[in-house]
């Protein structure tokens, strides 16, 4: 299959790498000649020569005849995506046109204003839910989409053969395809991605002027909550602006609950019911987050092991676990504030907990004497 | 040293286990005879017989003479801690009295109202920053305090010998002692613990009514932000109520910034500067969180490896890393939505990145072809 990618940043170049590895014929186009050349040099595809005759100089020309691409993928920044999609629909009158933007409803509206009904049927919006802290082709990797959700937004007017082509391409990258209505997609990412990003940034922001002696008390809880606060402001500004209605709606609900907490804190002892309610509602929402592989949340048994923070110790630990033939479902490492000690939480299915503890103790590992199950972090 | 522990829940029983393991003479007391017996049965100490003559039946009576304890540790729920501390100061006129409550200023005020000046000098407030999702003696473990910060609040009136005793006891549990003013402690935990808890709960709460197809898009970012949303409402209600002023103050600052984001989202394209600012301020605060072992944040190189989710694979991976004699600074595992594949991010010091990648590739592991450093998650 011939694929033409417009925009060779992180996503475009990564897609080129992934599809080239699957023997797709990939051509690349970017308004920046430097970015275009870099992506090609990395192996993401061949540079697009005007008119579509950019014949792949690779392993012969079997199959491909140098004609128009079957799929054109728009991977530009979100603010120019709509115009680029419209132009591509016009330039390639037989091709299916898709994109990788992380907000779908407003983009579809913009495209609808720019093109006719029949052209619109050739556009299928996508959102591969993959990314990195780094941007640009230099950060591209062929496995970026592997095992990540790839959302496809089609409707009843979408021709089945075109939808099939896009599904095939998405699955060729190793992604897991999910079909969603654009509005449901946007509402979902507001809750599971955009609002968590805003709030993580706000929590981290409160540490800006905290003295060192205060931030020294930071534990794993704070680190988890603020990890994504390290994200790129430019990228997130475009994402939040593009999904402003959905994000605002969720933030307003959140603010209402925040205000109840603030009021309860002001009122003192009599109002603790509102505090308990806020934490309990959080429990309820937490329980809805799916576990591994899209399954329902699983309760794992967690075995905690203390290890010296020296080379090879972790290797020995996991070798010992491997020798017991027990599968590790999840793991987490925490560090001592000023000691050379690590605390490793290993999650396993409850049936194997006792065997794991007995086995590790017999090999001299330091683990708690009482084997207590706690909620697994899936 | 003789230690008397009042309150045998998770913290009291864990402290008893830790100190007993270090050959301290520990006696236990709880208003619940069942809880008291359970802690004793688990090995946390001997049950307190009235009058202090609860002679330890263990390894002889060398040193100890069955008299009053040197330190009394109050480990009751926060709402009865002040009265219990005051009673203990009266009951044991020579002992140093300490506690483990997670809020210090309001507790000190309450104790001050209940006891005289000279008695107050025998009280030294503490906050060992350790806990679990589970509560009660049944969840106790001797390593609960290992490698965790143990905050001690003393002032210029605190006798040096008493302070020294408390430090010695804290360090005997494996904890790292930090000396802080109570107000600074409370301001710190508001920012690094209490506010992150509130906000994680609020984010999770927004998922309560999200359809399954929406929560199916949940990724590692959401899981990180909401992990502590699984915490116990009863415990957190007491903690938040006890530190209401500091928590409220930080939440008000956070709400001001939240309102700016909400306003910017409402205003549309012209107001994206406010969105960029919110994310950038988050970057700034994030950079203040210390890394491992209380050091400044370190930039690690992250190597990502794809592994099949089968028993032993992780063991083989860490064995192979161990064979290269490279120390793993941190690791993180992510899962595919519906595939049997795991993505492992291994953080190492940048100088060893190339060696690690070359070594793992030569053993057949699947890693990205381009070696790019990204910000380490310390």
UniProtKB/TrEMBL annotation, chains A, B:
Catalytic class of the enzyme: oxidoreductase
Pfam families tied to this protein: PDH_C, PDH_N
Top-level taxon in the UniProt lineage: Bacteria
GO molecular function: NAD+ binding; prephenate dehydrogenase (NAD+) activity; prephenate dehydrogenase (NADP+) activity
EC code: 1.3.1.12
CDD domains: ACT
Record key words, sorted: Amino-acid biosynthesis, Aromatic amino acid biosynthesis, Oxidoreductase
Family matches, as SUPFAM superfamilies: 6-phosphogluconate dehydrogenase C-terminal domain-like, ACT-like, NAD(P)-binding Rossmann-fold domains
Database matches in PANTHER family: PREPHENATE DEHYDROGENASE, PREPHENATE DEHYDROGENASE [NADP(+)]
Family designation: Belongs to the prephenate/arogenate dehydrogenase family.
NCBIfam families from the UniProt entry: PRK06545.2-3, PRK06545.2-4
Protein name: Prephenate dehydrogenase
Organism encoding this protein: Brevibacterium aurantiacum
